[in-house]
Structure formats: C-alpha cells, structure tokens
Design a protein that fits this description.
five-stranded parallel β-sheet, about 25% strand, binds adenosine-5'-monophosphate-propyl ester, alpha/beta, about 650 residues, seven-stranded mixed β-sheet, about 30% helix
Amino acid sequence: MTENPALSNLSHETRHFDPPEELAEQANVGEDAYDEAAADPLVFWETQAERLEWAQKWDTALDWDPPFAKWFVGGSLNVAVNCLDRHVAAGRGDKVAIHFEGEPGDKRSITYAELTAEVCKAANALTELGVQTGDRVMIYLPMIPEAAISMLACARIGAPHSVVFGGFSPESLRNRIDDCGSKFVITSDGGYRRGAASALKSNVDAAADADGSPVERILVVRRTGQDVDWNPDRDLWWHDVVDRQSDRHEAEAFDAEHPLFILYTSGTTAKPKGILHTSGGYLTQTSYTHHAVFDHKAETDVYWCTADIGWVTGHSYIVYGPMSNGATQVMYEGTPDTPHQGRFWEIVQNYGVTLLYTAPTAIRTFMKWGAEIPSEFDLSSLRLLGSVGEPINPEAWMWYREHIGGDNCPIVDTWWQTETGGIMISPLPGVTSTKPGSAQRALPGISADVVDESGQPVPNGGGGYLVLTEPWPAMLRTIWGDDERFKETYWSRFSKQGYYFAGDGAKKDDDGDLWLLGRVDDVMNISGHRISTTEVESALVSHPKVAEAAVVGATDPTTGQGIVAFVILRGGNDEEGADLVKELRNHVAKEIGPIAKPRQIMIVPELPKTRSGKIMRRLLRDVAENRDLGDVTTLADPTVMNMIGDGLKSDKPSAEE
Ligand code: PRX
C-alpha cells in the first residue's frame, strides 16, 4: 500500500480536548446513541427516518442484495417538501433559510416561505419546458440561490439533477451531459470570482453545440449582465420563464428509492463516475448527521458551509441536510481573499455564524495569511467548527481551534465521500474527547474498520485499508449506467468479506480511534477535490506535442497534494522551455478545468517503467517530493531516474500563474 509519508506520524498525537461542558449538557446526541445503534442498527435508522415527513411509511427498513441496497422499501416522500413546505406548515415560514452574500457585496436574505415559493415556480417552469419525472437535469451555476432553488425544483418533480462544478471545462461538462443523456441544462451568464465576472453560458454552448449533444433546452439565470450568445430555439432566460409561474405546486410523493441526483467524481480511469443517490435513505442520513455532528439547533444557530454546490459537500451539507432541519445558513458566492483576506471572518461576524464547516486547504491558506487577519473580527458567535475533504494535519487543527474557535469550539473532522452521501466517521461534539488530526470513530449506525490485504481487521496500533462493513442509508446505489463498474470499483477488493472498499488508507491508534491517511489508489486530492492521475494523463496526451505522460500527486503544504506531471514529447519536439510548460498546463485546464492544472510539469526523456511496461509512480512521487529514491532494481532501465532527477531541479512554474 502506498501512503502519504507526510501523514504517517499523525497517530502519535497525544493531545486531546474534552467537549465544552455547556455543549455536552445540551447536545442533540449523547453517548447513548452508540449503544442504541449497536443494539439494532436498522431500528436506529428507522428512528432517524421518522425525523422526516413521509407520504407513505416504509414496510421494510433494508433490502440488502449485496452490493445493491434498497432502504425504506415501500415508503414514499417528496424530498423538497421535507426541506421546505414542512417548515412553512409548522409556522416557520418567516425564518431565514439563506443569507446570500455575493462576491461584489450584494446581499439577499430568503425566508423558508420565499424559498418554497421560488422552488414551486421553478418546478412549474421545468414542467412547462417539458422536464418529466426521471429526466436528468444538468445544473452548471455559480454559488447563487438559484443553484439551491434549481436542485430543489428538480427534487420536487422527481427529475434527478446532476450538478457540475462551474470550474469544469466545456469538455468535462459535455462528457457528463452525454453520460447521463441530459436534455436540459440550467446555467447563468456567469458569476463573480476574484473581483471579475467569469463566463458560464459560453461553456454550456460549447458542450451543447457538439455533434450529437442531447441538449434541447438551456435555462439561463442572469447574474452578471454580460453579453451571451443566444440560440432562440434552445435558450431561455430564467426571469422570463420562472418569474411568471404560479408559486403553488402540488408535490407528488416519490418512492424512497427514486433517483435524487447523479454526481460525477473521478475514479482511477479517465472517465468520471456518475454516482447515483436516491431519496429516502440519503435524506435520512444527511438530515441526521447534520443534526448530530453539527449539534444543529434550528432556533438559534446560523450555519455556514463554505463548500461549492458543485461538490457533494454542497449537496449534503448546504442543501439537503441543513434544509431538512430548517437551518438558517449563509451562502457565499466568492473566494476568501476578495476583496480582502478577512472576507470569511467579516461574514462570520456580520451574520453571527455559530457553526462553520470548511476544508483543511482553506485553513492552511488562512494560516499562511496570518492570525492577525481573523483577530481583527469578532468571531465569538462561533460554537463549533467542522473540517472536511482531506486529512487535517494537527498544526492546522490546532490553529483552527485557537485562532478561529477561540479555544472553546469542538472541532469535528468529518470523513466521508461522494459515494457515502453523508458523514460516516466523525467525533460527536457533545461526547468525543477530540484529538488533533483524527476523525476518530464511525458515527452511530455506521460500521467502519481498518483491514489488511487479506481483509482481516488490524489490531489497535496497526494500519491498512479503510472499509465499511455494513450498508448505510445514504450509500451510493450504483454508478449511473454501469452496475459492473460499481461492483468492480467498490466491492471486488474485499468481496469475500462483502466490505465496501473506500480507497483510503487508515490507522487505528491505541484507543482504536481512526486516522485517515489519504488515498491508496491513483486518485489525487487537490484542495479537497478528487482528480484522477489518469484523467490528467489523458488530457496531456491529447496535446499534439505529447507522446506519453505520467502524473502523480505530491505532498503540498497548502493544497494537501499538488499535481506533478512527467511528460515525454513526440519525436521532433525538443522544446523544453517555460512556454511549452505553460501551454501544456493551459491545455489541461481547457480539457478538464483549472483545478486540474499541474503544479509542475517536467519534460523528461523517459519514464521509469518495470520490465512489464508499468510506470512506477512511487519513484516519480519520490522525485516530486524530493526524497531519496527507493528501490530501482525492478526498473527496465535504472539510469532513467538519474535523467529525470537531474532535469527536475530546473524550472518550477507555480500553480498561480
Ligand atoms: O480521501 C478521502 C478524502 O476525500 C475523499 C472523498 O472525496 P470526495 O468524494 O470528493 O468527497 C469530499 C467531501 C466529502 C475520501 O476518499 N477525505 C474526505 N474527508 C476526509 C478525507 N480524508 C481525511 N479526512 C477527512 N475528514
């Protein structure tokens, strides 16, 4: 197993922090939840499902035909009604659902009654455009309220949405549209990022204009007011179509297993996987975990998850979890450094944010900018801090606790994945004595373990592969259109035991607490975003000057990992200059999106290969991380590494250019 050497010492951490007394006394979930869930996990999840409003109660909690699960069989509900109408009906219509803050500083507070009306209008509009139950709707929007409104409108009419992060290229968008055969796209003219208006509609045009594209209708939100190309047979303005609709919409209840959304994520091949989530189980777990892990109190808390809606964190912990719990939350469009590096803390101060959920990459960036910046703002409203997306190193954890949390907020380090749908491993803030850098323990109702190559649990103190040993309500149901890949990717590695293979390495410390160590496959984690090495390699070799490419994730002090590419040029191309490197980096951004731009590209004469022709990425990672080379005797040509090592000491363009 390969593991990130920078993380291998983590589990020797000895500091721990007990929950603040006041929080522990009033916590939504106490220690007894573990025993209750252990006694009968299915009854436990049924109890949590009862927190929702069902049109028809289920007959059976779980139908498990490994690896295919059906939860709450026979039950039906409407997910949007659970996130909206239910709160209005209970007299909470005037409560703010979203405090939206645009990057340029425009503000909009939307109550649950207003949000419900907007979602009803959007649902009516989609129906008028011809969207039917089961149709896939692509959403490619910036972080504006219409993103959440669109998702909920889709959920309301039973049309699974597929949100694509606005930073993905037209090519990535097109692949996703084609894979799920989507006839409808919701986008905007653009959004604001780092003080400028970025374009989105033109990317959708490029995808929709491609030969054989299934796209028939594009609904466009006006956000920036910039000019956009317009195809009158296909394109419609949101304000023309949605605003004139009725704000009433009779919502149908759908089967608990009705598809809610498809979200694409990188796997170990070049083709992203469409992760399918369904309705009842997903909402049960995201709702419960938001309630339990963030100790969310609807009457008093102001919650802020800084993720983008284009990632699973935005789906589960901006839209479905918090809204099912009637949360008041902040939604921010832009970047943390626009117009100044205190923007996040200004938002916390202005809205009185009590629960903050962000990523280690952001925390490390704030560390770099310096503790004086947050110290200029009043952060005393905060009472709990969350972390997600990648392992959090103890230094960043301690800094977060001290400089943001004023030394009195519990930190919940939450491990989960696009595939798990909801949080799986995390401290419980009123129960757990937290340790800097450890996600610690599977939540009540969740069964996780660390096993060795043969699937045997490792003892305390040991390391191996993280597995999930029992089905859970928010688990992915399959990969869209590819049951075989679903079985192969997640269930074949430990098929004898029937375990779900998460793709992460982990350790158990002497107390049995879990420490996540990063991916063990060819998936990189850049700023908490998953990108596969193969995806970047195939983008590189699609450039006419590139013959062969190998990509590795190298430890990076801010982004967790950075992409380092080794490239062999085609015969006749002996350019090695900075211009070519820049051209290749831009090419990857064009093919996949700016998030996939390599931090560093090395033009090399050869790649290290075994005699059977397999690229030895371990060696490339050693080079990229400036380590002494490990064993090179299995290389077909051991001198290759000297050639590469010599070359790498030359120019290193930064990822910012
Ligand atoms: O490697 C783990 C890492 O992120 C992967 C999941 O990525 P994605 O599906 O994009 O979802 C990210 C947000 C849930 C995991 O396989 N990861 C996520 N959270 C943590 C983590 N690694 C360590 N600690 C975490 N808290």
